[in-house]
Design brief:
The structure holds 2 protein chains of 2 kinds.
Chain A lengths: L1 H27 L5 H6 L5 H11 L5 H13 L13 H36 L4 H15 L2 H15 L15 H35 L2 H8 L4 H38 L5 H11 L2 H29 L8
Helix pairs in contact in A: 1-12, 5-6, 5-8, 5-10, 5-11, 6-8, 7-8, 7-10, 8-10, 9-10, 10-11, 10-12, 11-12
Chain B lengths: L8 H11 L4 H26 L32 H36 L3 H14 L3 H12 L3 H28 L2 H8 L4 H38 L10 H9 L7 H28 L8
Classes of the chains: A mainly alpha, B mainly alpha.
């Protein structure tokens, strides 16, 4: 098993390096010279050439890459060509906010999906079960950013219960922090909650047909107790997989949600830098996002290997 | 990392069958999906010939009118007719969907078939490449492309197409692997037919079902992504009407005319729901994996 995990980590590292090469090339070769951007459109060719030399852009591309990647590995993201600020700390601050948002939305999605999924499975042929399935189908169809705007329209504009956007530091104003967190977390988690509830439902239904559950019933447990004691643990495995796969898409979904609610997270930072054409910053943020996606996939794979013995020797 | 195709879908359909043994609801999904998509297509075609007003026409004396009267759904902050913009907006959604799915299929399907037909080193090498691309979600790729090439509909379509190609490749590969183990393929190979012949004549037709399902799902994702990108200002550029752009404009006038976010919102939800249902319905009909336990 350790060998399999070591192999997975090796593949992860190789993929990460390849992804960093792609990121670097996409944002370096293509039009939109960083030196020209830094100087503005009025700069003369001579000024641009001097700036390129200053920024090291006149070196061969592969040397530029190793320089960038070498610093990246030790956590140095370089400085912004537009503002001249250190990029690393900016990314760190923004990532903390995005992390809080994503984790809160996962918790909310689970709080919705688990009871709803179980209920609609247990009552699959009854009206309420069908209604819950219908709600989840509609929930999947309303994109998070749209749901976010609708939430703002209702709770901020109409009812004036919650702020329409912005962010509070939990250390400074915890109540304000929660007030700013709740709507975006719901918006970001809504689609995931709906998708998850469908998987919970199918997983519970699958388990309900298993022999061990019939044995538990035969032992004298009521259907509900049998499901609680023996069924749910088994139903949880496929749901965990989907959840893991979804965290990556939540991370990208957060980019849009942060814009809806004007939250200063990684997504807002990325879009701001895109507007400024601040290429070194964009490279750094993209690398962080891609690394997180790959890391989450790696963790799912490893968790799988540990949970499911059949996968230990495979590939 | 293993190349995981979005596998869980089968389980859902299987138990939906469970819920209605007659299978009526399966057809229901397909029909409702087709009706909703039909609505969008109708709006797109109709708006090519006729809209109540010019969707790009600005009427400064008729700003932010409520629904009703001459402007059925009201007007926006430039005095543009909302209904006309919604109808015309269907065009850009469908175009982006068609082009993005086309690019994804053209890139991903041959890639997946070649990988699936050549087990061993080539397959492993190609799938590692696929994994690397999978690390760039389509929306992130579109934002990068927007930063590099400038944000517009063309950039968005190409980025979404490239971003969706890996999932086509994964699906085509796993389908191909199944087909390759069949006897008729073995027979064809034994009779001296070359790889091209087998791939085009045997593999492609036999995986077309799962590819159509994937196309439907990807179409919905592309429509959604276009709306999101236009909302962020990285997709369709004004004055071309786009639902995402309309949402962005409307958000600024939430306190004045909140209904403005509702109309494009409904349009987006109809399109996404339509393609989701169509994908589910087609999966039950076309995906051979779904027919085993019928």
């Amino acid at each position: 098993m350790l060998l399999t995990i070591a192999r997975r980590i090796g593949i992860f590292a190789a993929t990460l390096v390849a992804a960093s090469i792609i990121t670097f090339l996409m944002l370096s070769i293509l039009p939109g010279n960083a030196a020209r951007v830094a100087l503005g459109i009025d700069a003369t060719e001579a000024q641009v050439a001097a700036q390129e030399q200053l920024m090291g852009l006149d070196r061969p591309l592969y040397i530029q890459f190793f320089d960038w990647f070498g610093h990246l590995v030790i956590g140095d993201f370089g400085t912004s060509t537009v503002s001249g600020q250190e990029i690393g700390p900016q990314i760190g601050d923004a990532l903390a906010i995005t992390g809080v948002l994503v984790i809160s939305s996962v918790i909310l999605a689970l709080l919705f999906a688990i009871p709803m999924g179980i209920l609609s499975a247990v009552r699959q042929n009854k009206a309420d079960g069908v209604i819950i399935s219908g709600i989840s189908q509609i929930g999947i169809s309303i994109p998070g950013f749209l749901f976010g705007i609708l939430l703002v329209a209702l709770f901020a504009v109409k009812l004036k219960w919650l702020p329409a956007g912005g962010w509070d530091d939990p250390g400074v104003d915890f109540v304000g922090f929660l007030e700013h967190l709740i709507l975006p977390a719901i918006a970001l988690g809504s689609v995931q909650g709906a998708v998850l509830s469908r998987y919970v439902r199918s997983s519970v239904l699958e388990v309900m047909r298993e022999d061990f559950l019939r044995t538990a019933r035969a032992k004298g447990l009521t259907p509900n107790r049998a499901l609680m004691r023996h069924g749910l643990r088994n139903a949880a495995i496929p749901v965990m997989t989907v959840l893991g796969l979804q965290i990556a898409s939540l991370l990208i979904g957060a980019v849009v949600i942060e814009r809806v609610f004007a939250i200063p997270g990684l997504g807002s930072l990325l879009l701001d830098k895109v507007a400024l054409r601040d290429l070194p910053s964009i490279q750094g943020i993209v690398m962080v996002l891609v690394a997180l996606v790959l890391l989450l996939n790696l963790l799912i794979d490893i968790a799988y290997t540990i949970v499911d013995p059949r996968l230990r020797s495979a590939s | 990392m293993t190349t995981t195709t979005p596998a869980p879908a089968p389980a859902i359909s299987r138990l939906r069958r469970n819920a209605t043994p007659s299978g009526k609801r399966r057809n229901g999904n397909l029909i409702v999906g087709l009706v909703l998509i039909g609505l969008i297509v109708f709006a797109a075609v109709l708006s090519a010939f006729w809209t109540p007003f010019d969707p790009e026409g600005v009427f400064p004396q008729e700003l932010l009118l409520p629904p009703g009267g001459e402007h059925l759904l009201g007007t926006d902050n430039f005095g543009r007719d909302v209904l006309s913009s919604i109808l015309r907006g269907a065009q850009i959604s469908l175009i982006v969907g068609v082009v993005a799915v086309g690019i994804a299929a053209v890139l991903g399907v041959p890639f997946g078939i070649v990988a699936g037909m050549n087990p061993g080193r080539l397959d492993q090498f190609m799938m590692r490449g696929n994994d690397i691309l999978l690390a760039f979600p389509a929306l992130l790729l579109a934002i990068i492309f927007g930063a590099v090439f400038g944000a517009n509909t063309t950039t968005a379509m190409i980025a979404l197409g490239i971003g969706s190609a890996p999932s086509f490749a994964s699906i085509a590969r796993s389908g191909t692997q199944q087909v390759m183990s069949r006897e008729y393929v073995q027979a064809s190979k034994a009779s001296g037919k070359n790889g091209w012949f087998v791939g085009v004549k045997h593999v492609l037709p036999n995986i077309s079902g799962i590819l159509i399902v994937q196309a439907s799902v990807s179409f919905g994702i592309a429509v959604l992504a276009e709306a999101a990108l236009s909302y962020l200002g990285l997709g369709t550029t004004p004055p071309t009407p786009s639902w995402g752009r309309m949402l962005q404009d409307a958000q600024g006038y939430l306190y004045v005319q909140p209904l403005l976010v509702v109309w494009p919102g409904i349009a987006i939800a109809i399109a996404v729901l339509g393609f989701n249902l169509l994908g589910d319905g087609l999966r039950d009909r076309l995906d051979p994996r779904m027919q085993v336990k019928r």
